[in-house]
Structure formats: structure tokens, C-alpha cells
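Pipeline run #58 for the internal structure catalog. This entry was flagged by the ingest filter as a single-chain record with no existing model, so it goes straight to prediction. Upstream metadata was stripped on purpose; only the residue string is passed forward. Reviewer on rotation: M.T. Logging verbosity set to normal.
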Amino acid sequence: MGQPLTLPEQELAAALLRALNRSRRPLALTELCRLLGAPGSELNRLIDLLNENVRLQFDMSLIKQAESETLRALQTGATVPWYSMSRVCPYDLLDPQRLYQLVKGRGRISLLTLTDSTSSRLAACLDNAVSGDVIVSEMQTKARGRRGNNWQMGFATQLSLSMAWKFNNVAQLNGLSLIAALAVLKALIPLGLDIKIKWPNDLFLNQGKLCGILVELQQQFKGAEPGEWAVLGIGLNVYHDHDMEQRLGDRTISALGVQGALPLDRTALCAALISSLRLELTRFETCGFAPYRAQWERYDYLKDRQITIELEDGTRFCGLGCGIDNRGCLRLQAGQETRHFASGHILSCGS
């Protein structure tokens, strides 16, 4: 077990985590000493203790949960295929050591074999989180999509991860889901594929859904500084999954490739995804969405298409997709009228 912190160390640790959360950039040890009024030797020792304790608290409780989920799933037979097939199929399993070495940006990573939902697990750990913390799982049994949809992903054929990020106020959140989609797309650019973003944050490839993103907001806990936590859940189809295609019925999906046909590497892709998210969220926190508008519109899947959107109250509106505004709202034109939509569900989009 990690060494317990004394009461003064706990108070200094809380101040350290608050300073890191408030910062828009990495902080040097000399800056932390000045901000916290503590000597460098004391902070160095505390950081070592925190890394060990947090690793144990953050990872071990989740791993324990994952193991119980695995046993329960095997007892019910719900996920027996991955258990039996993993012994004979050359799955592209995530490599923890390589993942930790390749990832850039602040935050910790917890890698699980199986869990119900990476977003649910992460949301339960927010009282011990810093911006950039990530949970990755080889498989989720209760992954959630928009509008309450379930999204069960195949074992080791996709990338399932969730990232936590704290914002100081709600005004900073305008366009967040669009930034998340753009960050994922940027991580995939080296593959040379024609990937588009369907507003607000679905990634499409060859007319099929490649990646889904769900952003959930959590209020800051009592006694802490004001702020809003965002948990960003990412589900990316890496390899073609026939079983998932059958589960989804008439919904068209796509994947980056077929295992063995492309030089794909899930560990490298996962690291690129996490690093890109951390980088773009750090920039977004400072600049807001407006500077990203032109970048996002370069990949706009709905541009110049006839769109039907349904609002939360059931109202529908039809118009021609004409990009987004500086807040990330969808712009639809019908005749001389152009309307802006901050939210809504795309029912159909023509060619």
C-alpha cells in the first residue's frame, strides 16, 4: 500500500492539485514553490507520495471493479466470446507500458480489461481527479451514446476511453463537443483517410459512423472551488466488427480497417488520441471555440446537404447545411432564413 499522508501533507496536496487544475500550462517546480509557499524538497517528496498513492487509489479500485464485472459477465455468459476467442485470435491488445511511454500531456491513465462504462467509472473518481485523467478499457458492457442509446463494443477491436477535464465556468463549455471531435480527427490524420465530422461530434468514414463521442457534465463537489467537470466518452471503431454490425441492425458503421489489412496499432492510436485531446482541450480552455471554426468546417459532413433536425420538444426544421457559427451552433438555411441550432438530433441528411 502507498504511504499515508499526514494532515499537513493532505492540505498541501489539495493545494497542489488545485494549482495544477487552475493552470493553463505545465508548472515548473520553482513556480509551484512560489505559489504554495513550500520548499522544493518538500514538494518533490509530496509529488512522489501522491503519484504512488493516487496510482493505487485511482487504478486498483477500478481494476477490482473490472475483475468483478468480468466474473459476473462470464457467469451469465454475456461476454464468453471474447474470453474463448482471445486464446486463439491474434487480437491487437493494448500495451500498457508502450501506452504510458507514448502519451503526452498531464493526467493519469487507468487501463482496464473490461468494465461497464469508462465514463461511469471516471465520474465516480472525480473527487480524486485532475484534468486529463483517462480510463481506457478493452471492452465496455454498458457504453452509453447520445439520446440514451447503448453502444456495446467488441473486445479489443475498438478504442473505448473517457477523459475528465475541469472548466472554471459554464461559459467555457460552448463548442466543447465539437472540439472533442476535432481532436480525435486530428489524431487520425496520419492515416490518410477521408474522415468527416457530422455535427455535433460524430466522425464518419465512407458514409458510415466511425466514432461516437458523449460529453457529460458533472457539478463540482461541495467544499471545492467552483467549476464544472466534463467527462468525454470516446468510442472509435478500429477494426471491422461483424458482431457489432449485426447488433446495430440497419445503422451503417465503418472502421479504420480490417485487422491485418492495414498497419494499424491500437496502442499507438490510443496514445495519439489521448495526447490530441489533452492538447486541444488545453488550447480550447484558453481560446474558446471561435479560432477552431474554420478547422472544423474543413471536415463538415453536413455542408451543402439537405438536413432535417429534430429539437428536444419534437419540433423539426429542414434546411441546407451551411456550416457552424463561432459558438459551434449548426447553421441551416431555408429560403432567405438562416437558423442556428445549439442542440438537436439529425434525423436525415441528403446528398
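catalog note: The mean pLDDT is 80.
catalog note: The radius of gyration is 21 Å.
status: ready for reviewer M.T.
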